[in-house]
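Q: Can I see a sequence and its folded structure?
A: Here is a first one.
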Amino acid sequence: MLRFAGGDTGAFEELYRRHELRVWRYLQRNLGNRATTDELMQDVWFTVARTARSYRPIARFTTWLLTLAHNRLVDALRATRHHVHLYAGVDGSDGLSIIDQLAADSETEPSEGAQSQQHAAAVLAAIKQLPSEQRQVFLLHAEGELTLEEIARITGTNFETAKSRLRYARSKLRQLLQEYA
């Protein structure tokens, strides 16, 4: 980001390439509406470009970026007064969501593919059943790979609240997905 702020346009392309999917999935899994997600994505990245010169690395870039995305999400939800619709996702080292991982793991055997699709659907359904505050914390942790300190800052809560919400979310997910364990 500092390179981009210094005039290196290639650095912006690199930032976008590294973080595009993570931000898009976070927004999409919160909204469930592709058009709104695309609009917010554009707004987030315009904000990154617009505020580059004032950017100060007081936190990880990912934390700052997901804070922008979270704030745009909250604004959009307030403006439309819709309920939050969150979808599952856990980032793996290869950049795939848990749904993508389940599907990829089973591409060799058709019977395993059907089972993975069932698991993916169960994960989606379980995530949807979480209270919105727990879903947001869970997705910021799983999708954004953020620490509890970073999540607390983004959501405007204290560390203990973020920690409790994540613990309750995990507990509820374990309970809901018990048959797949």
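Q: Show me another, different protein.
A: A second, unrelated one:
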Amino acid sequence: MRPLPVALALTAIAAGAVASASGGKGKVVRIAAEPSREVFVPAGPFWMGIAEDDIDAVVTQCEQFFEPNEHVPIIQGGRPTPFCGGYREELSNMSPRKVTLGAYAIDRNEVSVTDYRKCITAGMCSLDPLIAGDERYIRDEWPLVNVSWFEAQEYCRWRGGRLPTEAEWERAARGAEASDALDFGDRARAAELVWPWCEEMLRDAKDTTKRCVERTEDFNHGQPRNETMRSVDRSQNILLLLGDPDNVDGYELIAPPGMYPWGQGPFGTRDQAGNVSEWTADARGVTDLTIGYTNLPGCSEHEEEVLCINPVREGNDRDTRVVRGGSWRQPAFLSRSNLRDPYGVIYDPRRRFAHVGFRCARSL
């Protein structure tokens, strides 16, 4: 069922308020305030990363949903690697770790085309994202796509912020503060927080029967590429694996930001699962010394545990960047809160993609 537009929802609320105020004859209308642009994430720790058992499940889905491994190799660490094999290697170097972050604010919704136009009008942002990519995906009410990593950073700086680090992005999506009812010391339990809506479901740490599951109608995602088209097209272009649109969630293509409020994260963010994938500040490690979280700045080992404080891999202007969150043209499982996008090798910060947008953050 197509999600109810926010404007209609507010109209319904207002109508109900009038009726309840004076039997339908009064003129007093009580309308809920518009949600703030940003949400606040307090300083504190959380579990970041993916458990070993989950890696096997994710790679199995990868092998089911994408082109057979032998057809599209990728370059991982300077050597050709099967697509899903390369993804396994990256995830295997993203083991769970305790990460402590300072307080920060992060956008509730993905940056829209209308938002970005304001920066252009102010003379602080480039017009290129609106004219250099596929125009079919540029609508005022949609999240901005066709935007390079550099242009996204430029917009966030104009707003007085920056792109979120990969750790900030994941904490906003997963929650799991040490002070929560969820036992921070229970790594296995924390590993359940793989969707933005999981924290509330798992808050009662005494109930170990609850499991947080993928809710495919609660976020905007795609499906694997049509099998017939995959069999016909045998080029080596990795973009051909992205997938096809899927309308079971209410939108076949991109949805306006915030249309799935029931899928919001523990701090109030929306669309961190699906809609458009999102640039983060971090460079993506690609060598044996930097793959995944290997030698991630800000992290160190302590008594067989990895502890991190405000981790981020800065990189240089040519390093590919970490993209998170899944999108409207990728299978639902890739929208999990603790997964990187498997197409990481293509995310050159100068390139544009019809499925990649962004949101901003700022330190507090």
